[in-house]
Amino acid sequence: MHLGYSAGKVLASADWHLSKGERPAVLIGKDTRISGYMLESALQAGLSAAGVDVFLSGPMPTPAVAYLTRALRLQAGIVISASHNPFEDNGIKFFSAAGSKLPDATEHEIEAGLNAPIKSMPSAQLGKARRISDAPGRYIEFCKSTFPYHLDLRGLRVVVDCAHGATYHIAGHVLHELGADVVAIGVQPDGLNINHECGATHSSTLQEAVRQHHADLGIALDGDGDRVVMVDSKGTLYDGDQLVYIIAKHRQQRGLLKGGVAGTLMTNLAVENGFRKLNIPFVRANVGDRYVLELLQQRGWQLGGEGSGHIICIDKHTTGDGIISALQVLHAMRDCGKTLAGLTRGLTLYPQRLVNVKVAKGFDFRVSAQVKAAQAAAEHDLGDRGRILLRASGTEPLVRVMVEGESERKVKRWAEQIAEAVRSAAAG
C-alpha cells in the first residue's frame, strides 16, 4: 500500500496538462500468481488514497500493460509479476505514459517516499477504480497488427505453451485469428503452477508436445509474456540468439533493417560471427533487456535481444514482447517459405560452458594474478574461435565463468581450469 501511495503522490504532483478536475490515472496488470490479488488490492488502495484513478486489467502480459498504458493515454502502468520465477516470488514493474521504463529520477522519487505516513485525500478527492473489460481483445488486435496483412498462418499447426501465465487467454487467439491450427498448452493457471515445468524456461514440455501433435512448430512464452523460444517440427530448440538472427537476416534481405543488432555479453559468439558475414553491425550490452533497450535507443537501432528469449523490436513495440517477437519470426518463415532450420542454415551455435563459483562477499577476481594468467592461457589457446567472459553476479556472491568456442573439449577444459583459478584465488 505504501508503494502505491508513494507512486500516487509522485504521479499526482507531476504536470500532466490534465483538464480541470481530472485526476492522473494508472493501469494495474498482473500475471497469474496467487499473490497478485493481494498486491493488486494494496496498490489500488495506496493509489486511490493519493487521489489517483486506477484501471484494472486483470491478468495481462507485461508488454500488454505497456501497450495499454500508451493506448489509453494513462500516466503510468504497473505490472505485478516475477516473470519466469516460481509462483512464490512476485515483483512490481512500472511503465511510463509512453509505454517504456519509468525514468530513474521518477523511480528514485517513489522510493524516497516509501516510508512517509499515508495521509489519505478527502473523500471527494479519492481516486476511483474500474476494470477494463476489453483489455485482452485490444491487445490481441495490437499483436495481430504487427504481422503483415497480406500473409497468414493457414496450413501451419502450431503448439503454443503459455506457461500457465499471463498469455493463457491471449497467445492462442492471436495465432488462431491469423489462420494457424493452434494447440494451446499451459493455459490452466491456478495461481500456483505458473512456469512450473513449462514455458520458455522449460522447453522440453513444448518439444514433447510438438512431436506428440505432429505440429509444424512450437512457441513457448514465459509467465509474463516477454520471453519467447521456438521449436521446429523435429523438436529442435531455437533460443533468443537464433530468433534474433532470423529476424535480422530477413529484415536485411528485405531492406527493412535499420542500423544493426544489439545483443548482450552472453550472446553466442557464432551469432556475432554470423552477423559479421552478413555485414550487419553488432554490439553487446550488459546482461538484461533494459540494457539492450538503452543501447538500441542510443544508436537509433530497432532490433536486439538475449539468448533467454527477450527480443525487442522497437518498430513494433516499446518493450520486449514474446508474442510479437514470435510473429516476426513467423513473418520471415512465411515470406521466405522456409522452416526455422532453413532460416538458420549456416549458423551453428558454439558450445558454451557456464560455471558459477561461490566466493566471499567483496571478492574481486579482476585483481587476481592467478585468474588473469588462467584467462590469458585460455584466450591464447582459443584464439578467434572462442571467447571467455568472467563477471560477478549482481544478486549473489558468485563469479560466473563462461567459455564458448568451436571445440567443445577445449571449452569444457578451460571453463573448469579458470573456475578452479577463481576458487583458489578466492580462498587465498
Descriptive keywords:
TATA-Binding Protein, Alpha-D-Glucose-1,6-Bisphosphate, Chain A, domain 3, globular, five-stranded mixed β-sheet, alpha/beta, 3 domains, 428 residues
Describe this structure in words.
- The chain is built from 14 helices and 17 strands.
- It is α/β, with parallel strands linked by helices.
- It has three domains: 2-133, Alpha-D-Glucose-1,6-Bisphosphate, subunit A, domain 3 (Alpha-D-Glucose-1,6-Bisphosphate, Chain A, domain 3), CATH 3.40.120.10; 139-343, Alpha-D-Glucose-1,6-Bisphosphate, Chain A, domain 3 (3-Layer(aba) Sandwich); 352-427, 2-Layer Sandwich (TATA-Binding Protein).
- The chain starts with a helix and ends with a helix.
In short:
It is built from 14 helices and 17 strands. The protein has helices at residues 2-13, 35-49, 62-71, 104-112, 135-145, 171-177, 204-212, 240-253, 269-277, 289-299, 322-336, 340-343, 369-382, 408-427, and strands at residues 25-30, 53-59, 76-80, 92-96, 129-131, 157-161, 181-185, 217-221, 228-232, 237-238, 261-264, 282-285, 303-305, 311-313, 352-358, 386-392, 398-405.
